Amino acid sequence: MKIIVTGSLGNISKPLTEVLVGQGHEVTVVSSDPNKREAIESLGAASAIGSIADVQFLTDTFTGADAVYAMIPLSFSEPDLGDYLRRIAQNYLQALQQAGPRRVVVMSGWAADLTRSENIEHIFDDLKTSLTIMRPAAFYTNFYQSIDLIKGKGFIGKFLTLRYVGLRALLTGKTGLLMGNYGGEDRIVFVSPKDIADAVAEEILLLPQGKNIRYVGSEEMTCNEAAKIIGSAVGKPWLKWVLLSDKDMLQGLKMAKVPDKLAETLVEMQAAMHSGKALENFHRARPKMGKIKLADFAREFALVYHQK
């Protein structure tokens, strides 16, 4: 098969490319970075360098392909995240409609259908081809964004908070640290990007009719149980995951001068996880869990943690 993989050499796209090339498929990887060309081609794939904001580039790249894996990289430099996601999803839709691949797999998120701003799945309803929407749970790799905070304070916070709030804005009179509006004893499904890549590779070879949904997870536990696994791997078995209210989370983001719409989106995304509705939907779908457990990832995490 001729398969197009978007997402450059990211956490999912790189292992996905390796799997598909290993299966003997003709793979083209889309990247906006010309410096990635050599690394892409070293995997045995072709490279297509251009922007997913360019519909004509996408159309030209997708034309003649049997299958397309479409993902939208999150961009928090955009003041309105929802508008950005919808805009890029529309670009994909136009290009896919014009190019006409018979199989499309779109990356979403396990709580995307529960949020107003993040849900772009409905945009693909008009796509007249075999379509699967992937809904992976919370990525193991998000823990990398908490390394500095774990080292400094011995707490874990949601990566979106850490990226945009900064250490000074993390300090609050009520809790000592602004961490995120899900955590603590909330039960969450976590997932390895490698398990997601394997699931996408499976889906690409299938040809179900119409629109389908596939959830992907590796292991379910509470946030504090996850924190203990990560903490134990780095010598801090007492590690805790602090939970804030939606109000405190929003206030902290605004103190950090995050644009209002973006701050509201971040709070909404985390609130959907704290509510337990994402977990209910996951259980209802009854997906098969992946192979890689959090303890496996924690060993990789510890190597990176101690190098910083």
UniProtKB/TrEMBL annotation:
Gene3D superfamilies: NAD(P)-binding Rossmann-like Domain, UDP-galactose 4-epimerase, domain 1. It comes from Mucilaginibacter robiniae. This is NAD(P)H-binding protein. InterPro entries: Ergot_Alk_Oxidoreductase, NAD(P)-bd_dom, NAD(P)-bd_dom_sf. It holds the Pfam family NAD_binding_10. Residues 7-120 form the NAD(P)-binding domain. It comes from the Bacteria.
